[in-house]
Specification:
single chain, 264 residues, alpha/beta, six-stranded mixed sheet, 10 helices, 10 strands, 23% strand
């Protein structure tokens, strides 16, 4: 499904500010895999997401989706088969448009464009049905401006809109980090339900170690542009936060008191 082969990215090469953002990254994901990614600031997590999405073209290496080489496809072309939910709840929606207009816009991405009403009676019925699954009452607020919604409501809407595009790959870029704990818990639960319902191949970056343990069938830890720990299946299910911290210390060869702060 998704393969990253020997991916390397260097910023400001051959300058005093040179930074190796990714170093020889190798990842293979099968259909339906849900991989959570943790690591310190500057570990390369966001760069990894941007390489997959097409925002960054790697200096070295290839990106394959369904065995098709896509490393040099621009972001707008990859958006037809890659869905992404960002940390900023406003990034995935148009705040000046209504809920139903946002949903119609998302639905339009998978249909040939032609002159027609964006919001029809049949579409309103469909929108109400899918929104009711969120249990947030948004099905009764179709004409409300998205900019008036809470952060959690906007993020739930963004997550729902990505499923309309029927993506091959779903990228979740710290999509609960800007929310308060109760809303973050809601979106975390919703994420697990949506990924399972649509059998989405998913990569999620998070600073929340408990979230990384609770979601997905595989966990990757990054540090200094490299994958330093990769665990899946039953072994992942048995892990605790303390296990992750101990692994981080072991690999780094340190006994830092602030390891939890570094990874969280």
């Amino acid at each position: 499904m998704l393969e990253l082969a020997n991916i390397s990215v260097t910023f400001n090469e051959q300058t005093p500010d040179e930074k190796k953002a990714l170093q020889d990254i190798q990842i293979e994901m099968d259909k339906g895999d849900f991989v959570t990614v943790i690591g310190s600031n500057g570990a390369g997590k966001s760069t990894l997401m941007n390489v997959i999405a097409g925002q960054i073209i790697p200096d070295v290496g290839d990106v394959f989706i369904n065995r098709q080489q896509v490393a040099h496809l621009p972001e707008y072309k990859r958006s037809t088969f890659i869905g992404r939910v960002f940390q900023d709840p406003m990034a995935g929606t148009a705040p000046s448009m209504t809920i139903e207009e946002n949903l119609a816009m998302a639905l339009g991405r998978i249909h040939k464009r032609k002159l027609r009403l964006g919001v029809t009676k049949n579409r309103k019925s469909t929108f109400k049905e899918v929104l009711s699954s969120l249990n947030l009452g948004l099905e009764n607020r179709l004409t409300a401006k998205v900019g008036l919604l809470s952060g959690g409501e906007r993020q739930a809407l963004s997550l729902l809109m990505t499923t309309f595009t029927e993506p091959e790959i779903l990228l979740l870029d710290e999509h609960t980090a800007a929310l308060d704990p109760s809303r973050a818990a809601l979106i975390t639960e919703l994420t697990g339900e949506v990924v399972q319902k649509f059998n989405l191949t998913t990569l999620m970056v998070t600073h929340n170690m408990q979230q990384a343990l609770d979601l997905g069938n595989r966990l990757i830890m990054m540090d200094k542009g490299q994958i330093i720990y990769d665990v899946s299946g039953e072994e992942k299910q048995r892990l605790t936060i303390e296990d992750l911290l101990q692994e981080f210390r072991r690999i780094r060869g340190t006994q830092l008191d602030n390891d939890r702060a570094v990874l969280s």
